[in-house]
Every structure is written in structure tokens, then in C-alpha cells.
Specification:
Elements (H helix, E strand, L loop, with lengths): L1 H41 L10 E4 L5 E5 L4 E2 L9 H11 L11 H14 L9 H10 L6 H17 L2 H11 L6 E2 L1 H9 L8 H9 L13 H17 L5 H9 L7 H4 L6 H15 L3 H5 L4 E4 L3 H14 L7 E7 L6 E5 L24 H10 L7 E3 L5 E2 L5 E2 L12 E3 H7 L2 H11 L1 H10 L21 H12 L10 E5 L5 E4 L10 H11 L16 H4 L7 E6 L3 E7 L4 E7 L9 H4 L1 H14 L13 E6 L15 E6 L23 H8 L7 H5 L1
Parallel strand pairs: 1-5, 3-4
Antiparallel strand pairs: 1-2, 5-12, 6-7, 6-16, 8-11, 9-10, 12-13, 14-15, 15-16, 17-18
Helix pairs in contact: 1-5, 2-8, 2-9, 4-5, 4-6, 8-9, 9-10, 14-23, 15-17, 15-18, 15-20, 17-18
Length: about 700
């Protein structure tokens, strides 16, 4: 009876115990289901975070590696030394291929230790957990971080296979000295690829992640060597290597790269900086993200032209001079930047004077003015008086431009001569005649974005602009007036090979094609001695160095020296001067820009097919007398083939250079013709022209 009453008394307890157990199991099952559902909905976490960005030239050769403050590469498992992989697995996670991201035995042992020590010092992380922590989390030892780590680890195991996780871990683990991943570590410590590591080298690198500073072979070689040998012995005990391999690896000489000797200058550093800046703008991300996102950036860099430009800067600017340089070469048909020099020494100054600096371009600004003049009815034969001239401005002040060294023709000169001789009075007169706003509008249309004041002196290049702007604008003269966008990047792909940006050229016609060609022909005049007058043409000092026709314009101010010129294939601009805007006082210093330009352009075209400036439809060429601008006769000492828009070419013959008769009077063309052709029914003018 008592037993029966006792059993009745405990039945509710058993009932509630069983019910509670069921509830607990159900809660655990629900929790697991919710956890798995969360991980599934959250999806696969990315396997990579920061990776080195590679920069390629126009031939798809790697010319630079951008990695910010960290050095990272990504390679596949089959590109790694197999012994190194085994060493890492045996050291970090022997049961990696058996567990699901967590090792229960290690977790339980670590938890008991932490409870006993009242701390969180004991680690039991698997490779998956370490990978999750390295990618997504901090290394602080808190329960919150450990929970997040577990969730990331579960997601990694859910969506990726073991080889993918192991490859990711080995590509992201820190090996000290800024090297992340086995490839970066191999290059840093041994200057070789990960696949080329020896057993001893692989074991040494496998020792480092446990304590990158403590086990660095550079700072603590004995610690690194001791742990290396421990790893090798573990590999032997686990039958991963033979006894002979063990002994050989232990006695192997470790030849670390001497880092002081490994410092290398970046190739085309100013160009590579432009790549990062342009990518940052195109992708709307900061520069550090560009460097560490694993992009493959394909650029327009021509390595041979870059080397030639750097060499000619070095050869023509003596080391004793403090002058600086900004140089940029571009394909005028596409806007592709081919080569850049932003200064004499990148190590001393990374400031890019070809892009960032803005200086007064002097007379190199005149072609924009004269293009506007052609649009307004000027021709190469249009004449204006060259003599000292005063201009009264709207505010009542007087402006008096002067020519170089105070030289003037003191007679009318043609536009062809004015641009070849760089006559300042002709330029200012033209600017005032057209209206100063016209020059501003024309320069803006051609790609000059710097602020330009609408004043008479703008014709002489008194505003500040960059070399890149000027070269881009000159490209329109070289390509027949088509809009181009100066750029260094052709294509960007992400770390998976997906194209995320590709440059698309424009086809917009900005300038009148006929007038653009006439300007190109006018700008060949700086090298043509037939245009010499009250002084030599401005390109006389380098004309003999040029083996093919180029168009160009030089410019000088008190503090700046410029030379910009082009063929149909290449436009190159050179600026030289002092960073502090100090006056250029030596004549030879004003020559640097021209010498660099001439030698570079000759070298750049040495192996290329020559393409002449071809007149488009609507343009006609005639021989004129450079002084009068009229059609040349046999009595003209100099003749120049000049191009005109059809219908604007001169129709009368030059009478400046006719012979003198016996009475001291200049003969007329008609009487000369009659005397020379009394017995012939032919006209010598018809024969000549």
C-alpha cells in the first residue's frame, strides 16, 4: 500500500521531467534549425578580403603591384608546395578534413581550461574558425567575437568545400612583415613562388603564423628554427615525410632574402599613381580600396616609350640643375596616355607635375586662339602689323605686350609667320579682335578645364593649366578635331576575372576638320626656315634633329618652358621649370624642354610607319610667299606649301620680290611675262602653277 501511494506521489514529477526533456530537445532542434536557416539565408561569405591589385601595360605585361600597407596574392592549392600544406595541417588542424568546422574535443578541453583559469586564454580554433576570424573579425578574446566566428565558420563549411576553405586560409593568414598569404610570404622571405619552396623553407613558413613576431626568422631566427624542427619531427611521426627527408630538411641552409637589397623602384611610378587615382574615380571607391581589392587593371602604358621618355629627361637635364619636369605622351586618336614623367626623382617627390601642377603655358596657348581665328575668317595668309602696340583696356589701363627680346618686323606678317615666330603682338591683336571670350570658349571646348580669365593677355598663355590638359587639347589638332578623353585605364576586372569597367571611346566631332588640318599645317612652321623673318622660327634649334614632319608649338614665360608637338600617332608635351616659380635665367635651361621633346619623338617613331598629315576634302594646298601671303613666283626667295579651306586661298601673285628694271623701278608681272614669252604661246605662271 505504501509503495502504491509513493508511486502516485512521484508520477507528476516523472511526467513533468519527461515533458521538460521533450521541450528541451524540441528547443535544441528548433535552435539548430533556426541557426542553419540563418546561415543559409545569410549565404556564402566572400572567401577573400584584401588582395594585391595588379597593373598591366598595353601588352598585358604586369608592370606594378598595388597593395597598400599589406602585401597579398591569391593562388590555388595546386600552386603551393605540398609539403608546406601538410606542415600547416599537422600544425594547425590535423582533423581538418574530418570535422565540420569545429573540433568538439579541442573545444571541450579549451573550455575546461578557461573555466579553471577564469580566463579565455586557451584556443581551440580550427582552420575554418581561424579563416573566419582573419577575414571578418577582430582578434579580441570575447564571447561575442567567438559566437560570430562560429557563425561565419558554419557558413563557410555550408557553402564551400574543404579545399576551397584551406586555399582561402593559406592565402590570407599573416606571416609577418606585411605579408599575407603563402605566396606573399614566399616572395618576401625567399624571393620565390610558393610552389618552389623546399621542405625546410615550407616548414619554416608554417612556423610563423603562431607568432609572426616571435617566430620571424629575421628578428628571432633561433625561435623560428626551433619551431621549424618541431614541425618537421611532427611530420615524420605522422608519416608525412621520411627520416631521410627529415634529416635533410633540418640541416638545410636557410637563405633569407636580404631586405635592404630587395628594395626596388616602381616602374613608371607617376603613371601607376595616375592608375590608382583614375580607378578610384571610375569605381567610386577610395585609393586604398583600389590597392587592396585584387583588381586586374589593364592600362595604356607603353613600356618602351616610358623608358625613352625617362631616359631623355635624364640625359638632357643635368643632375646639377634643380629644375623640374612634367612630361606626358598620348595617342591623339584614342586619348590613351602612353608615358608619363612627373618629376626628376619619384623617391624625393611623388608630386606629379604632368597632371597635378598648373603652370602658365606661354605661347603654347596660341594655337587655340588661331583655330578660333580660322573659324572667324582668318587664313594662313592673313597679315597684321608687327610692331610695339598699346592696348587700352576697359578699366582704362594700358596693356603693351612685347615680343621676345624686343624684336619686331615693323611691317605686316602673315598668320603662318606669326605662329612660327611666335609674334605676341599678332596674337593679342587677334584676341582683342575676336573678343576675349572666344578664346576661353574655344579652349574649354577643346578640353581645358582650368579657370581661364577672358583678358587680352590670355593669348600669351597667362592662365595656369596642366601638361595633361594641354596635350589632350593638342590631340584634337592631330586627329582631325575628334573629342578624346585622356585616360590611363582601358579595362578593370575583379579578382574573379569579371570585367567591371571598360573604356568606351567617343566619336564626337568637336572641331571643324578642315580648320583642324590647316592648324596642323601651320604648326609645322616652327621647324620651317622659309618662315624666318625678323628672327628665326622658334623650332630652329631642333629642326635638324627631326627626320619627319611634326607639328608643334613652344612657349616660354619667366618661370616656365614648354614644348608640345605631335604626329598623327603621338602627342607629347614637356614642361620644365622650378617648383618655387623661380625665374629661368639661363638660355640653355629654356632649351631643355625642346631637346627632351625632339629626342623622345624621334625615338618613339623610329620603328613606326610614317603617317603624313593628309588634307581632308574641302582643303587645298598652294605655294605662297611667306612674307606677303600671296601666291609665290620664281622671284620669291622662299616658298611654302600652305593649306586653305577651299575658296579662301590667295588668287594674286606676290609682287614684293619682282626684279628692278634699268630705271630702278620694280617690274610688273605682265611685262615680265611678255618679255619672256614673245616667241612662245605659253605663260610661265601656268607652267609654274
Amino acid at each position: 500500500m505504501n509503495q502504491f501511494l509513493t508511486s502516485l506521489r512521484y508520477r507528476p514529477i516523472l511526467k513533468w521531467t519527461g515533458f521538460s526533456t521533450v521541450i528541451m530537445i524540441a528547443l535544441v532542434v528548433c535552435s539548430v534549425f533556426i541557426l542553419l536557416l540563418y546561415c543559409f539565408i545569410a549565404g556564402a561569405p566572400p572567401l577573400q578580403n584584401e588582395q594585391n591589385t595588379l597593373v598591366y601595360d598595353r601588352e598585358d605585361q604586369v608592370v606594378g603591384v598595388e597593395h597598400g600597407g599589406e602585401n597579398r596574392y591569391w593562388i590555388q592549392l595546386d600552386e603551393m608546395n605540398e609539403a608546406f600544406i601538410q606542415a600547416t595541417l599537422l600544425t594547425e588542424d590535423r582533423r581538418f578534413y574530418q570535422h565540420f568546422g569545429f573540433d568538439p574535443k579541442r573545444i571541450m578541453a579549451a573550455a575546461i581550461h578557461d573555466i579553471k583559469q577564469l580566463s579565455k586564454s586557451q584556443g581551440a580554433s580550427t582552420i575554418t574558425q581561424q579563416y573566419a576570424r582573419n577575414l571578418y573579425l577582430s582578434h579580441e578574446k570575447t564571447w561575442t567575437r567567438k559566437i560570430k566566428e562560429a557563425l561565419y565558420a558554419l557558413r563557410l563549411e555550408m557553402f564551400y568545400n574543404k579545399d576551397e576553405i584551406l586555399a582561402g586560409y593559406l592565402n590570407t593568414i599573416y606571416y609577418g612583415h606585411g605579408a599575407y598569404g603563402i605566396e606573399a610570404a614566399s616572395k618576401y622571405y625567399f624571393d620565390k613562388n610558393a610552389a618552389e619552396l623546399t621542405l625546410g623553407e615550407g616548414a619554416l613558413l608554417a612556423a610563423i603564423p603562431k607568432g609572426p613576431s616571435y617566430y620571424s626568422p629575421y628578428t628571432n631566427f633561433e625561435n623560428a628554427k626551433e619551431r621549424q624542427e618541431l614541425i618537421l619531427k611532427t611530420m615524420y611521426k605522422q608519416d608525412a615525410i621520411t627520416e631521410q627527408e627529415l634529416q635533410s630538411a633540418v640541416s638545410e641552409s636557410i637563405n633569407l632574402v636580404r631586405q635592404v637589397e630587395k628594395v626596388e623602384e616602381r616602374f613608371a611610378p607617376y603613371f601607376q599613381d595616375m592608375v590608382v587615382q583614375e580607378a578610384s574615380r571610375l569605381l567610386d571607391i577610395d585609393a586604398d580600396s583600389v590597392k587592396t581589392s585584387g583588381y586586374h587593371i589593364h592600362t595604356s602604358l607603353d613600356q618602351e616609350m616610358q623608358k625613352a621618355l625617362e631616359k631623355n629627361v635624364q640625359v638632357n637635364m643635368p643632375s646639377t640643375s634643380d629644375m623640374q619636369v612634367g612630361a606626358l605622351s598620348m595617342d591623339p586618336q584614342t586619348g590613351e596616355v602612353l608615358a608619363v614623367v612627373g618629376g626628376r626623382d619619384y623617391q624625393k617627390s611623388s608630386y606629379n607635375r604632368a597632371v597635378q601642377a598648373k603652370r602658365m603655358p606661354g605661347s603654347t596657348f596660341k594655337p587655340f586662339l588661331y583655330y578660333a581665328a580660322l573659324e572667324s575668317g582668318y587664313t594662313p595668309a592673313t597679315t597684321l602689323m608687327s610692331k610695339p602696340t598699346y592696348f587700352e583696356l576697359e578699366d582704362g589701363t594700358v596693356y603693351e605686350p612685347s615680343n621676345y627680346n624686343g624684336y619686331y618686323a615693323y611691317e605686316p606678317i602673315t598668320l603662318a609667320q606669326a605662329i612660327a615666330l611666335s609674334d605676341n603682338v599678332y596674337a593679342v591683336k587677334t584676341n582683342v579682335f575676336l573678343g576675349e571670350d572666344v578664346l576661353v570658349e574655344t579652349a574649354n571646348k577643346m578640353g581645358i578645364t582650368s579657370k581661364l580669365p577672358a583678358v587680352p593677355s590670355l593669348a600669351l598663355g597667362t592662365a595656369s593649366v596642366s601638361v595633361e590638359e594641354m596635350v589632350g587639347a593638342y590631340s584634337l589638332f592631330a586627329n582631325g578635331g575628334k573629342k578624346i578623353e585622356p585616360h590611363v585605364i582601358e579595362k578593370i576586372t575583379d579578382r574573379r576575372g569579371k570585367t567591371i569597367y571598360e573604356h568606351k571611346p567617343t566619336e564626337e566631332q568637336i572641331l571643324d576638320e578642315q580648320h583642324a588640318f590647316v592648324m596642323a599645317n601651320l604648326m609645322t612652321g616652327m621647324f620651317d626656315s622659309s618662315l624666318n623673318d625678323y628672327m628665326q622660327v622658334t623650332g630652329a634649334s631642333i629642326a635638324d634633329e627631326l627626320t619627319r614632319p611634326f607639328a608643334g608649338k613652344s612657349g616660354t614665360t619667366k618661370t616656365d618652358s614648354w614644348m608640345i608637338g605631335y604626329s598623327t600617332d603621338i602627342v607629347t608635351g614637356i614642361w620644365t621649370g622650378y617648383d618655387e616659380n623661380k625665374a629661368i635665367e639661363k638660355v640653355k635651361e629654356h632649351q631643355f624642354a625642346k631637346d627632351i621633346w625632339a629626342e623622345f619623338m624621334e625615338e618613339a617613331h623610329a620603328e613606326s610607319t610614317f603617317h603624313a598629315f593628309s588634307p581632308p576634302d574641302g582643303v587645298t594646298g598652294v605655294y605662297i610667299d611667306p612674307d606677303s601671303g600671296q601666291l609665290a613666283t620664281p622671284y620669291c626667295a622662299h616658298q611654302r606649301l600652305a593649306y586653305f579651306e577651299e575658296g579662301s586661298e590667295p588668287t594674286t601673285y606676290c609682287e614684293l620680290h619682282l626684279p628692278i628694271d634699268d630705271h630702278g623701278n620694280k617690274q610688273d608681272l605682265e611685262s615680265i611675262d611678255k618679255q619672256r614669252n614673245k616667241s612662245k604661246n605659253r605663260n610661265w605662271l601656268d607652267i609654274m602653277f
